[in-house]
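Handout, section B. The chain below has 399 residues.
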Amino acid sequence: MKGRFNSASYEEIKKGLTTDIYFLRTVKILKKEGVNPRVLAEFTMHRPPRNWPWVVFVGLDEVLELLEGIPITLYSVPEGTILPYKDSQGIKVPVMYIEGRYADFAIYETPILGIISQATGIATKAARIKKIAGDKIVLSFGIRRMHPAIAPMIDRASYIGGCDAVSSVLGAKLLGLKPTGTMPHALILALGSPERAWLAFDKHMPKDVPRIALVDTISDEKREALRAAELLGKRLYGVRLDTPSSRRGNMRDIVTEVRWELDLMGYKHVKIVVSGGLDEDSIAELRDVADAFGVGSSISNAPAVDFAMDIVEVEGKPIAKRGKLAGAKVVMRCKSCMRYLVYPKSNFEKTCPICGGELENMLEKYIENGKIIKEVEDPKDIRKRVLEQIKAISLDSYP
């Protein structure tokens, strides 16, 4: 259709036009029957992709935007909460609840699930990579692998998950950050030589833009890195190695060689940035020899976390489909050992049965009868909390 991209507009999403058709049919049938029961619907996840032991919950900001004005009440764990899909007793951990008359919010199930499933997957992948990278810089470079309409969402989820910077202009603007990037191979090819490109970048870019030279376009990485350092001297912040896997060889050996030669020639200040097809395994292999990582598809194309919404109460009475646990629940987390415990709302503990620590209820009220009563935090504060949590947990287990 001329005049639009293949993406839904704000108004179309708010009107529920991105829902599955059977929800529209369900609402129509309920209205014809004169039935619109008050329900409690909970959101839980199936086993996370790739057997991830925990996820970083993200997407609440857009859920609030979607449901504002709808006569429902919403409870949720805060964005940036790290949690397993099952608690210490083997019970699935609810991340959100909606209370309201079912026909009033039924058409929003599809977009809500899409919002939290994809954002949580991206944030979780970013957190896993940041956990491995430690104090090394991680840059989110993956928006070119996904539809441009969701570039800001990708950057927000990546940043909250732990990335130190993002590359898209709009994504960075919405986060209150400056977009980060180096230079493409296209600049070097268009100007005819790496040397001319490095000098032109240094000449025309503002002083607050780090001088990072791409050093694998024409010849050997070591040779180009040393040449860039000779030309720019102390102004050179770093060099970027983006060699494709088809020509890479052993990347650790290449980085080690570049580092050795730079140090030997007096350029210890020059940092090494590695990009191109990086994931958890490759970053683990390179983290002690590289200074920063530009990560693309591994984060932006992260698998979605499979959330589901299920009714667990109708008109105040516990009821659920097969395989689900009926009734309202509380989600408790131990302040000491970080373990989760899910209890019936009518009967729950306040002391951790595992370590004796104090339990805190993780579900907070964000919407009451359609009005937002608790705003989502600043992404910088959410990211800070994520970084604190990943320090205390293992990559392979929870807690």
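Note. The mean pLDDT is 96. Compare this with the example in section A.
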